[in-house]
Fold these 2 entries.
Entry 1:
Amino acid sequence: MQKIERWGVLELSRLGKTDGNPFKDYTIKASFRSDREEKSITGFYDGDGVYKIRFMPSYEGVYTYHISGNFAHSIEEPTGSFEVGPADSENHGPVVVEGTHLRYTDGTAYHSIGTTCYAWVFQPLNLQERTLETLRGSAFNKIRFCLFPKFYDYNKKEPLAMPFERGNGEGLDSELVKTNEKDRMLFPGQKIEPYDFGFDYTRPNVELFRLFDKRIAQLREMGIEADLILMHPYDKWGMNQMGREACEQYLNYVVSRYGAYRNVWWSLANEYDFVLAKKPEDWEHYGELIFSIDPYGHMLSVHNGLKTYDFSRPWITHCSLQRTDFYLTTESSDRYLEQYHKPVVWDEICYEGNLEMGWGNITAQEMVRRFWEGAMRGAYCGHGETYLDEVIWWSHGGTLKGESPERLKFLSQILGEVPGIGLNKGEGAFDEVVGYAGGHSGEGMETCYDYSIHYLGVCQPAKRRVILPEDTKYQVDLIDTWNMTVTPLGEMSGFNIIQMPGRQYMAIRICKAGE
Amino acid sequence: MQKIERWGVLELSRLGKTDGNPFKDYTIKASFRSDREEKSITGFYDGDGVYKIRFMPSYEGVYTYHISGNFAHSIEEPTGSFEVGPADSENHGPVVVEGTHLRYTDGTAYHSIGTTCYAWVFQPLNLQERTLETLRGSAFNKIRFCLFPKFYDYNKKEPLAMPFERGNGEGLDSELVKTNEKDRMLFPGQKIEPYDFGFDYTRPNVELFRLFDKRIAQLREMGIEADLILMHPYDKWGMNQMGREACEQYLNYVVSRYGAYRNVWWSLANEYDFVLAKKPEDWEHYGELIFSIDPYGHMLSVHNGLKTYDFSRPWITHCSLQRTDFYLTTESSDRYLEQYHKPVVWDEICYEGNLEMGWGNITAQEMVRRFWEGAMRGAYCGHGETYLDEVIWWSHGGTLKGESPERLKFLSQILGEVPGIGLNKGEGAFDEVVGYAGGHSGEGMETCYDYSIHYLGVCQPAKRRVILPEDTKYQVDLIDTWNMTVTPLGEMSGFNIIQMPGRQYMAIRICKAGE
């Protein structure tokens, strides 16, 4: 009997009809059943007469399946069974929401350290390999990227492939693509003119989608969540102007194809409010559609440009934020946590780099500071890098040049030592932000006052008061978040004054001794 | 005939009665008259039987005066005259308000670069001399300090002198002062208990007030505004609990004594909201009192702790601010300018240093950045320094150790080159704050679009677009606000891309060529 691991992918392939438009004209489905769950899964057409169903089992045990649909006159091996064994030690299941925190399904903490490479899968293959190599050695456990190509400053080369075939049977003639290289990107105030971009949106380019299969699976094996951006404004090929029917078919295809990857998140759009051809009711419709067709309830949100989405919508699992203020970024986490009672994920807090645009020219120090400010508040942050070059991480991937990624790895280690699944912001002095261990899995969201981290940000004190209960001993550690050191200061109780180095970006960790 | 300069001080001294309490029991006044003005001036008792009147003439010309009052049975030389000549080149008259800007009375721009040494006049005299020496070489043209001594962390040594005599004829027995060294400082939530501190508030210690005479005059000669803090909370001697009558007499004394110094500003209180023994109506009463008795209409405001004062009050000339948010300081200038339509003076934006308190441990870079953020918005800022030591500038004066003062001098030079009397914030890219020359004296408050400074703060772009009208030439300069350099980039018009060093704290200055 075929064996897979829990939260792995069981893929079924069957040959079927090729006449007409198989992406649209025929269906394939399967029902899966075990002692502990029962799911109906929609498959997809993968070209060359092959129809596929991908299923992610949520439990161990023996599963049976039954394939149905009109994709074939007679379905070959319509039923079968397979065995689901324990998850590998590195496989903790999909990321889910617990209160305002994220965690893996098996209860393991997930301290999200994100990054962004919008169009990395549209770059030359050797560059994609380099990106994977960089990610492998990094702290990043989430990456945001687009399923549609990107046209924008520094992104004007032809993408590796287009997501749809050309209409009229012309397929993927790249010459034809090039003849339409008119800049069709839409910006606020720009008039939308009907324009035939020549794509047949009912025919996904399976070559490209197979590449995404591979990349998502590779990320999964590296323990990296794939935050798939389904739509975005930076386009000259018309994908930002696809109509209702085309979008529905595309979203169905994507959910059928990638839903079984445990590391998938759905980002309905990057900067949804800059996609001028779509209205609020469109986003609602597409969000609800994904919510209704995704059998696994993957993480799902919408990322803003200037105006944050209404994250209270029931289909939204978390706040996916871009800062909307120039000065305040992750310092505003409290506000969103209070307003929405959902995890707060700062997917854009400006990028480390030196581009001419303000969103892409902050220092490594500022990037790291924003991460710590967010982390202490129980929010999650995303990195990006924009040093002026031919290849820029933020969109192309490649190699990292900045100084923040190493520090984010250090932050990741510090967070990894926190008991429970995350931090809850607590009361502190006015010049510190204090995160207490909290959100213990299985114990609800209680805050644990025996474990706290006091982050001092831009302040540079030469000493500091540490006031503790008289009757309990605490281990006090000095953390240099920039130089990545932890200096134990010993056990303390009552009133203490500790010496500090008079540098910025320090933190004090206070843990009940012996815990 | 005696000659003084315009905006100088004409001092008249007359002997008078010494029986009873001359500070309280007798009056001295004088009327001054010239072709251009007429003023009635109240004098004050200076001890040893000497009564004084100080007058600052606002115009050139011949003045006559007439002394009156019951201070003497027979007034010696009750009338006289003197001549007022032109002001020295360094004397531009008192600072006044024009719109939301400050300027000197003669129309000269006043780009306020403040500093704070709360208790410098209560320090040993040689330290006071050192403070003056430091100020002489600095960019500071305003200094905030208290007329009452200060008791607070790092301020626990006995002050040089007390502002009032001891009651019961015991005068200024310092032994007696020491026996009352109980910490009487009040903090929010602390109960106010009636307590006799043993001072006779009707008897100012003229020795101390003579020292203030000297210091204010020395500052005046150095072109430095003396922002006199009249009341404050950090006290153990009871001055923060003085009653209505005592306060009135004190304020009358101070205004009579110092009103004629053109460089005087009245800061009714430092952190008024921490002075627990005073209620909102007290502040209103004292503010209106000063407003009504000050013959010159000196700058007058109230400085906040946590809650800003209602600067719309008619007796308030300007907003005297301490930041009320940990992250945002001078970035909030726009809000106050819009709300109050009065000059915005950020007297506390945290201090450069390394104290354990968050208000006293920012970097020099951050201090300078806050100054530039404020300046570009047409606001004014104050510096302070708190490096942990026996002598700390913020309260004691002495010598500066920090890196910001030199950069503030550079800022002062840059501002000194701006045409008109100040900057007005204009529209800019979202990652810059743009100050346009504005507030031209005599031309109202128009903004001059031919002269702008674009400050990029924490951003570190490697290049930048400079988009100018096609038909006009502009001189473009790159300003490194930290390294204090101005690099001319030549004349430009139309669309340009300029190379930037990829460092923080840069500004671009754009001036119409030939202007």
Note: Chain A touches chain B through 31 residues (CB under 8 Å).
Entry 2:
Amino acid sequence: MGPARAPKIDVGILGATGMVGQQFIAQLAGHPWFRITWLGASERSEGKKYRDLTWRLSTAMPDEVGELTVEHAVPGRAPRLVFSALDASVAGEVEQAFAAAGHVVVSNARNFRMDPLVPLLIPEVNPDHLSLVPAQQQAKGWSGAIVTNPNCSTVFLAMSLAALRQFDPAAVSVVTLQAASGAGYPGVASMDLLGNVIPFIPGGEEEKIENETKKILGSLQNGHVEPHPVVVSAHTTRVPVVNGHTEMIGVRFEKNPSREDVLNAFTSFRGRPQQHRLPTAPVRPIIYLEEANRPQPRLDVDREGGMAVFVGRLRPCPVLGYKFVALGHNTIRGAAGAAVLNAELMSAEGMLD
Amino acid sequence: MGPARAPKIDVGILGATGMVGQQFIAQLAGHPWFRITWLGASERSEGKKYRDLTWRLSTAMPDEVGELTVEHAVPGRAPRLVFSALDASVAGEVEQAFAAAGHVVVSNARNFRMDPLVPLLIPEVNPDHLSLVPAQQQAKGWSGAIVTNPNCSTVFLAMSLAALRQFDPAAVSVVTLQAASGAGYPGVASMDLLGNVIPFIPGGEEEKIENETKKILGSLQNGHVEPHPVVVSAHTTRVPVVNGHTEMIGVRFEKNPSREDVLNAFTSFRGRPQQHRLPTAPVRPIIYLEEANRPQPRLDVDREGGMAVFVGRLRPCPVLGYKFVALGHNTIRGAAGAAVLNAELMSAEGMLD
Amino acid sequence: MGPARAPKIDVGILGATGMVGQQFIAQLAGHPWFRITWLGASERSEGKKYRDLTWRLSTAMPDEVGELTVEHAVPGRAPRLVFSALDASVAGEVEQAFAAAGHVVVSNARNFRMDPLVPLLIPEVNPDHLSLVPAQQQAKGWSGAIVTNPNCSTVFLAMSLAALRQFDPAAVSVVTLQAASGAGYPGVASMDLLGNVIPFIPGGEEEKIENETKKILGSLQNGHVEPHPVVVSAHTTRVPVVNGHTEMIGVRFEKNPSREDVLNAFTSFRGRPQQHRLPTAPVRPIIYLEEANRPQPRLDVDREGGMAVFVGRLRPCPVLGYKFVALGHNTIRGAAGAAVLNAELMSAEGMLD
Amino acid sequence: MGPARAPKIDVGILGATGMVGQQFIAQLAGHPWFRITWLGASERSEGKKYRDLTWRLSTAMPDEVGELTVEHAVPGRAPRLVFSALDASVAGEVEQAFAAAGHVVVSNARNFRMDPLVPLLIPEVNPDHLSLVPAQQQAKGWSGAIVTNPNCSTVFLAMSLAALRQFDPAAVSVVTLQAASGAGYPGVASMDLLGNVIPFIPGGEEEKIENETKKILGSLQNGHVEPHPVVVSAHTTRVPVVNGHTEMIGVRFEKNPSREDVLNAFTSFRGRPQQHRLPTAPVRPIIYLEEANRPQPRLDVDREGGMAVFVGRLRPCPVLGYKFVALGHNTIRGAAGAAVLNAELMSAEGMLD
């Protein structure tokens, strides 16, 4: 845990009534640095006590949040730091309005992820991308800012590859087996998913993985992000799992690491969240499991608070070089937890002062 | 259907009481050419009426089979043609004994699949490999013979690749999402599979796919099979699906086909079972589905009597060249149905006369 | 099968584009007496070829239906006999309009089920209730008519009880474990149903079972149905099963049958569909399974074309008298198949001439 | 929490390597009063470090337990207090040997549950039954003792009824929807449970519920337990849920409580664990959920540490009087957690001094 801080930083939630908004609330319950004081949603929920809305998570709704009254998601009464759980259909306009009005928007929405001036941040992987913010503010004329986290499936792939960046990954093939919770609520119909596999996820899921990974691993050059040259091929599927995206990954490296080199790279991987001991940072961002049949969503996804990536089955791939399995919690490390960690990093580095 | 034949050929089932044995019985119910007259199993079931054993399939047990008495699985009273549903732990010894005693053993077991003198047969793909049989008989001193079908996951991959053989497939990456029924009975514990993905299948599943594919696509040269040079990388997973293995396949070709070339190759693919109009042969061995989210086990696996391979989502792969999805029924086209089709081909080509 | 009939009777489907409409189309594919010639739906689908709409079933769309153009669901061009797969939100008004315009509406909707002049028909149970039709026509001023089938869960309970009617059932407790397909499409969210039980089904499911059962088992007296005095208590749950409602039933009888009496009543139960040999009638409406752990949805629900009720585990109940399990296919015998059998009975009894 | 105690009480686990044994270990991790110092199992595991065995839970194996070496399950080196997670096939003999040798055996096995001298204990319901222990010791000649907890499904029913004992429950009908984890490991085959309902649980599950409930609610009279006169009818099913047994319960009372009376009885129910503030006791043993569709396994089973019973949908039953739903965590409150709470009560009442 970081040093004692008094008082906590007030935060707001944009899109507080949806599934992702609830996951933000759960992730921030009892947070040592942040305190939810404002909930924004569409006009439909305006004026309602939060506890009178439907709560869909298995953890209890925090009492102090239940007492808050939902407001219309417009700038003004919100605190400076807001987390955005907005749907992509409205996030573009709303987040821009908040940034223009001086808010720091830490967003899970996809709208600004590929904007060249907006950090697409994984604190362990590319904390230096936060230095895009001043240029962003200047170019857009915003007194606030927008910082984004990647698509859920991208996070686990990009963290795995970041650990191996030293070996120059050149080509990556990834097949995802994604959980139902990744589709929001109501998401996929039970008739479509019970005892079934759907070999396609709409909304450009594969393109997001292919493009976001290159930006995240990219390097800052002259104030912009130069995408990493790695070529990524993604094939996404939906499987009847509640939480946890499993990814079968093959990688061709430019360099020629031994299996031991790769294994060491996984287990020794650390980043700035671990240096800062950020409140929700896992001690080890990547945990390698030795058992032949792991990681598995049901056994592993809730470990480490859902903030680590679990990797297993590292072995040679006759086609690409190496192959392995990665697993992550899609609604925590892949969404709300990712954004909260982004805000923790920004706080630790003085960007919220 | 083929021409009228009278009378039907008597067949026996080795391993008749297990899950695969039951699938053979279901597949042969009402078959126009074959008639089950003999059931062999371990001594434990010897002397029991078949209808007094536990039947685990959702189709009804055929009445005429229920009346048969299970015999010990030793040669002697069995008809010349026997299907083997034996477990690998005993198949080696028993099948050899039957072949030596003059039986034609059409086997689903893995024991002899990679034997250089034993055809690993998919009738649409490598019917010429049946010409190994005389050399097999001579070398082993058998008056009978053994013919095998591939591992379930191999069948769907090999059929897909066979359709594209003209483009010289050089490297293949396949990730399988395999159904519970592929593990036999009791197979995977429900605690392990409910709402879960297991990223590993024991028993050398990945090696089987990698090696069997090369043999099946291989060419006959001087009386032996020269393996196809394609390099295959397989990653197998178990998912909570009852029937139907889904495979995410990427292929690099030596030649440079257009997407239309590949699509045409899939849809125009036909083989000797279609020429012979074998009783259980699908009209089209590969059916390409245009919908973006198909094939799916729940919607597609039972179509065409479970004997076709369903392919979809053909598109360029930035890493390998092309990628697509294939789906097949693992206990039909991937097991009992594969063996029955093998026997139909042998019958049509006069090898059972 | 019944006697040869030429030509087939033209039929229309109201609500042809929804899940239930598709089930009607599947149930009528290749029907020996009926031929679909007209498809009605909301204005949204008007003018579209049926094959251009999304088909959600695992059986193939019949070719001849794919060629039909969807029309607006108003009387006029529809044939005299129409099946209604309409949602309850619109069925009341539309069905009434069709009946007034001279159509015979054989409906799966709930709107008119409890109307005292409308038969709530299970052909094996209360075929005499069809004699309500003339009074219905006179009272409502319709030249056509409406005949309904029960709620899916009611069918299996009412058929079980009808077989035992001679013992005067007085009190019934039923707990249902209902499949996802009973909720239509998209129905229940996968997030809500994966690995879960929902102990409540909205829309008055329990009240429907409690009330419809009394009407179905009721007797005709002076031109109206006198409800059966049996008291029914229903508790409905949703479980992660695709097709098949399982019902745990306890019954107290006024009379004091032995277990053998009850068992004989189940196995000897036959009705008018069996006398008429209606095309989709099961040979035995109730099939008793002796195995201790049957019936089960996965193993039994598709048997007998989904038209039989499977019963098992008959044994004394220390609280009520007897208890047993019943299982039926909710979208076939519980919906589209029920309506088609109703129309077959009406045809066989000359009501469609 | 209870008063500070130093040092902790050493405890052993009989049957430490099975699924239930692992659940005991998880339940005792970090326990404020008890410390695992001894692990007993069959000779097969004797001498192995615990961490070298397969751990099947999603929570991590406690480090200090991993260091222990498994011993053969015979008295001698075990501490005085042992928890028994033994399978019924061996529990009878082994538990008796331990009790004879002076150990206090707090058992989850079924073998001694119905022994008239052995408490079948739920601390909130029948703590006075612990007074059977001296007579047990005398009659059996044991210096130790055996105390048992009920079958998992019985616990949730008996706790619900105990809260309503004042209204004199006379007849109870219960249908259970039980989770896969209740069958141990490997338990039910995935082929049998995926997308299915099995309307039967072997091993006398229904009889256990019917008989154990009467003993638990029974009263002590002249040194023995006089069974409660309530008549219970149980119907048990297995459903594809990982953890959490759902029970649909109907009750006829001798007295005539209002719905408000019953509701108040649920919400105000407390017992001796709450008075003693035992470490794992829930603040409220029964939690009534107002939402129409609760309790649900996925949303509720892990709340309150798995130690509360969740009740909902209380409403009149036209057949019996009242009906409602109860849900409990079968491996915690229904097994290991039940036994640990039993031991806590015994400790708080001085029976372990």
Note: The radius of gyration of chain A is 19 Å.
